[in-house]
Amino acid sequence: MRKFSIVLLAILFCLLLVSCSNQDNAEIAKEEIVYASSKDIRDINPHLYSGEMAAQNMVFESLVINTEDGVEPWLAESWEISDDGMEYIFHLREDVTFTDGEKFNAEAVKQNMDAILDNEERHAWLDLVNLIEENIVVDEYTYKLVLKHPYYPTLTELGLTRPFRFLSPNDFVDATTRDGVDGYSGTGPWILTEHNENQEAVFTANVEYWGEQPEVDNVRWKVMPDHQTILLALEKGEIDLIFGSDGDMIDLDSFSALEEQGKYITEMSEPIASRAILLNSNRPITKNVDVREALQYAIDKQSIADGVLNGTESVAPTLLSSTAPYSDLGLEAREYNPDKASELLDEAGWKLDDSGYRYKDEEKLELSLYYNSDNAQEKTISEYIQHDLREIGVDLHITGEQKQAFLDRQKSGEFDLQYSLSWGTPYDPQSYLSSWRIPAHGDYRAQIGLDRKVWLDETITDLMIENDEAEREAMYDEVLSYIHDESVYIPLVYSRTKAVHRPELQGVTFNVSQYEIPFEKMYFEAE
Which of 80, 92, 240, 285 yields a CA-CA distance of 20 to 30 A from 454? Predict the structure, then answer.
């Protein structure tokens, strides 16, 4: 009997171990979010631009953050602005350390700001960088930012995902960050603990985080360049979350199909950015404003919204939504009107012949549109546009290019038409318009043939430092009205960020910026 009892106890003990092991495994599975991305995180140096912004946002933080309710305190608990708008005094939190143990204080802020300014040319698209006069350590936890001129978007730009994020000075190389860093020690809720290039990255919750702790232990960022592979991985239970904007991770057909299945939860943000087509004013055919205006009327935007985007995105009558600051201007919407488009092309000298195409002085009206082939939606949208232009006698060639080639073409200006996306909140309109003055951007190249391009750039520069609100509103009106009248952009729809996730994953929300993913708010529902 005693031997039987011992054996029974041994069996019970083994069963208990197995039960505990299974329970532990279940807990481990529920303490890690597996996120699928078509892109590797790359170098997440917060002062440069090659890394994925969502990853940079997980590790590095800013003095303030942009929210739906405006700018709010973050690493700075409070601030004061001088009457002339040229000095900002920030009172820093005193309970923050970098993940390497280094103290976050005013000296660390100054070193980071100095490192950003050391690479000023790279950040020229952002006016705040150009306007910083001095960084001053007032005391251990008080930092002063001095500007050359008042600059109304200062706080908004300090809250952007990059470059005004803070890295431990121990990770600097020769007191700067412009040529790379020795580590990624931030103050954020996550620590990058593993990175296998083009395979996956693991972010672990920062147990010393000064703020609210993430709900899970890890985020595993799995790289899956093919969109169908991502969908298959979701179906097989290998990933928990798909999250992205503008079709980068999932196209609308797949999104709608998953929504209809009912197996997954689908989420969609409010409209955040503008999809548009750039019309290059510096090319032989599209330099004619009548041709550019004709193309505005030739495209059936509603069919794109319904046929490609399944009615989830609204038609864009103007480049920026009227809900964006300074953008409610009552500009005339150019609705689909192929007869009007044909009339304008006739007036511009482009006549239809028996082939069904238009010619002028024996030259065929032939254009090229380029899109990012890595994007799940741009190809289909381009095909719709190709069909619509064919209906009015325009021969449009569409070409998909890998993302880097697509970006290089923006810099060179070697395009007639090119797919474009505004930057969305909180970048629109100020940072988006500011970038129009930078030659490396497609917007600059599309606008360079305009008669008043010099005026346009100078006015954008002036409005950024205009302290009078009424005058600034008038200057935005001038700029956006001019661009609208010159037909440099064909606004298509206003885009949304999409998320698909397993039902047990809760707390999936959206930040103001389409480029950030709030993993720290997500958790698994207890079984």
Answer: 285
Judge whether 170 and 191 are in contact, CB under 8 Å: no
**What is the phi-psi region of residue 85: left when phi exceeds 0, alpha when psi lies from -120 to 50, beta otherwise?**
left
Q: pLDDT value at position 6?
A: 44
Q: In degrees rounded to 5, what are phi and psi of residue 97?
A: -130, 155
> Secondary structure of 451-517 in the HEC alphabet?
CCHHHHHHHHHHHHCCCCHHHHHHHHHHHHHHHHHCCCEEEEEEECEEEEECCCEECCCCCCCCCCC
pLDDT of residue 30: 64
Token pair for residue 519?
A: 């993993």
Q: Please, which pLDDT band fits residue 526 given cuts at 50, 70 and 90?
A: confident
Instruction: Tell me the C-alpha distance between 478 and 188, whole Å.
Output: 41
- Cα atoms in the Cβ-side hemisphere of radius 13 Å centred on 326: 25
Element (H, E) at 223: strand 218-223
Q: Does the structure show a pLDDT above 70 at 16?
A: no
Over residues 417-442, the mean pLDDT reads: 93
Residue written as token pair 């170098």 = 43
Residues 6+ apart with CB under 8 A from 56: 44, 46, 161, 162, 165
* Distance (Å, whole) CA 134 – CA 146: 5
pTM of the model: 0.86
* Interatomic CA distance for residues 88 and 71, integer angstroms: 14
For the segment 303-309, the average pLDDT, to the nearest whole number, is 92
What would the mean pLDDT of 444-466 be, rounded to a whole number? 96
3-state secondary structure 84-102: CCCEEEEEECCCCECCCCC
Q: Which residues pair with 275 in a beta bridge?
A: 421
What span, in angstroms and rounded, lies between the C-alpha atoms of 64 and 47? Answer: 16
Which whole-number Å values give the CA distances from 312 to 252, 266, 493, 495, in the listed order?
A: 8, 12, 10, 9
| Spatial distance between the Cα atoms of 154 and 149, rounded to a whole number of angstroms | 11
Of the chain, the percentage scoring pLDDT greater than 70 comes to 93
pLDDT at residue number 325: 93
CA dist 253 and 230 (Å) reads 14
